[in-house]
Specification:
By secondary structure, the chain is α/β, with parallel strands linked by helices. It is built from eleven helices and 13 strands.
């Protein structure tokens, strides 16, 4: 096998993945793979499209491509994902962190930057939200809960990898929603499962086949199950003037807001749109 030009390899990847992904998605996937294998940023490569890929590099990329052709997400294939300013280990035991969730982190950081606050992340998965908030605000005391031991092991790896001091705890919010925690929180944040089972058929196969369903999907007739549990926990464990931040299903924003109003617990309840103009977050102040 001879050495291959970067530009030729880009064309090959594009053709091989054309039935699975849009052009922009294929371009992004190739950029991630090439940076991972060649250890060089994509901008530098684009400025030098004739850069030669060695035989060993090509072999590694071919192995990656074969996995990608099964629709396995590139983040699982590479074992890592970018989130905010961090590189996180990911595997099928945790969700791949999304851009929308980065917006949630930025929203919290904007309101609490530089403050010595107690933050709780419920359902931390890979640790993305908790770790990004700690990285942005080293003075914050951050605790992260998850019901999955597999997820917590990955989150702990990511804390060590990024040299961030986070306390992790095995905690099932559905079973312990009425528990009184001695140390109260200034901020409680969660990105709980909110995709309806009926929405599954419209999702990309790489999500449905590979990402953990327990972290994604809820029954259509009980779609607010996690939110109700989080609200119950928040009533007991959020400090006065504390804030609750939630990522939500865009179709459930008004329903959640109405439910919160009946609780008569929050003085402010605001639905916030993501960068795509969809109702994506709820911010509440006690």
């Amino acid at each position: 096998m001879n050495q291959t030009k970067h530009s030729e390899l880009a064309k090959y990847f594009n053709e091989e993945l054309s039935e699975l992904y849009s052009y922009n998605e294929r371009d992004s996937i190739f950029a991630m793979c090439i940076e991972y294998v060649l250890k060089i940023d994509n901008v530098s490569l684009r400025l030098n499209p004739n850069r030669l890929v060695t035989v060993l590099e090509r072999q590694e990329l071919d192995v990656i491509l074969e996995r990608l052709k099964t629709s396995e997400p590139v983040q699982y294939v590479l074992g890592e994902a970018w989130f905010d300013n961090l590189i996180l280990n990911v595997s099928p035991g945790v969700l791949i962190p999304r851009q929308e969730t980065e917006e949630l982190v930025a929203l919290i950081d904007q309101n609490f930057r530089g403050k010595s606050v107690n933050i709780l992340d419920i359902g931390t998965g890979s640790g993305a939200i908790a770790l990004a908030l700690k990285e942005r605000n080293p003075d914050a005391n951050v605790i992260a809960y998850d019901f999955s031991e597999v997820a917590l092991d990955i989150a702990k790896e990511n804390a060590l990898k990024n040299n961030l001091d986070i306390k992790f705890e095995l905690f099932d919010i559905l079973k312990r929603q009425n528990e009184n925690i001695e140390s109260k929180f200034d901020v409680i944040v969660s990105n709980p499962p909110y995709v309806l089972n009926s929405e599954m058929e419209n999702m990309h196969s790489n999500v449905v086949k590979y990402e953990p369903h327990a972290a994604l999907f809820v029954e259509d007739d009980n779609s607010l199950i996690f939110y109700r549990a989080i609200f119950n926990f928040t009533e007991i464990n959020l400090k006065e003037s504390g804030s609750l931040y939630l990522e939500i299903n865009e179709a459930k924003g008004e329903k959640l807001k109405s439910y919160l109003r009946t609780k008569n617990f929050f003085k402010e309840i605001t639905i916030i749109k993501d960068l795509n103009g969809r109702d994506r977050f709820i911010q509440c102040t006690k």
